[in-house]
Amino acid sequence: MPAPETYVKKAKRDATAAKMAKDLSIASKKANKAKRREIFKRALKYDQKYKQAEREAIRNARVAKKTGTFFVPAEPKLLFVIRIRGINGVSPKVRKILQLFRLRQINNGVFIRINKATMNMLRAVEPYVAYGYPNLKTVRELIYKRGYGKINRQRIPLSDNQTIEGALGRRNIMCVEDLVHEIFTVGRNFKEANNFLWPFKLNTPTGGWLKKGNHWIEGGDYGNREEAINPLVRKMN
Questions:
Q1: Model's pTM, two decimal places?
Q2: Are 126 and 140 spatial neighbours (Cβ–Cβ below 8 Å)?
Q3: Can you tell me the distance from the alpha carbon of 237 to that of 120, in angstroms, rounded to the nearest whole number?
Q4: Which helix (H) or strand (E) segment is 229 a member of?
Q5: Does 62 have pLDDT greater than 90?
Q6: For 13, 124, 185, 233, which has the most beta carbons within 10 A of its beta carbon?
Q7: Angle, nearest 10°, between helix axes 161-168 and 176-184?
Q8: For residue 179, what are the CA distances in angstroms to 27, 171, 172?
Q9: Hey, how many other C-beta atoms are within 10 angstroms of the C-beta on 25?
C-alpha cells in the first residue's frame, strides 16, 4: 500500500529544510572562522603598532639625552573624566555641562576628546570631576571589565563581538580590540564609538577619597591628575 500523499510531501519538505539548515550552518561556521582569523590579525597589528610607538618614544628620548637636547612627546588627545561630587549647590551651567558629558551620577566615568571646547567646559566643572590621560592598559581594562554598549537606548553588556559589530560594523569596528584602538588613538570614528559606550559605573576608590574639596595638587581629589589618573582608575575598577 503506497504511503499517503500528504506524508510524502511532508517528508520531502522536512528533507529540504534539513538540507538548507545544514548548508546554512556550514556557511555560518566558515564565515565565523574567517571572521575570527581577521579579528586575530587586527589585534596583532594593533599590538605591533603600540609596541612600535613605545619603542620610538624611548629611542627619541635617548637620542635627545645623548645629544643634549630635549624630546617633547606628542600632546595627549584623550581624557578620562570621573565625577566625584553630587549636585548640592550646583549652578545650572555646571549641571548642564555634567549632563552633556553624560556624568549624571557620582563615580561615573567617560572618555573625552581633548580640544578647546571640552577643556573650557572641564574648567567650568573642575571642582566636581577628576580627570587625566589614560594609558592603553587603563582603556583596555575599562572596556573589557566595565564596558556596556548603548543599543536601542538599553545598557547591553559587551559579552561578544557580535554586539559591537551589529552597532558599529558600518564604521569597520568589528570587535573589542577595534573599539579599544578607536578610543585610545582617538580615530576618525571616535565620536560614534564613544557614544556607543555607556558611561562607566565605577566603585569608590579603595581606601576612599582624600579630600574632595581640594585640588589634586593641594592633596585633594578634583582636577587634572595627568598620568596619575591611571592608578586611580585601578582602585575604582
A1: 0.84
A2: no
A3: 28
A4: helix 229-236
A5: yes
A6: 233
A7: 60
A8: 27, 10, 10
A9: 10
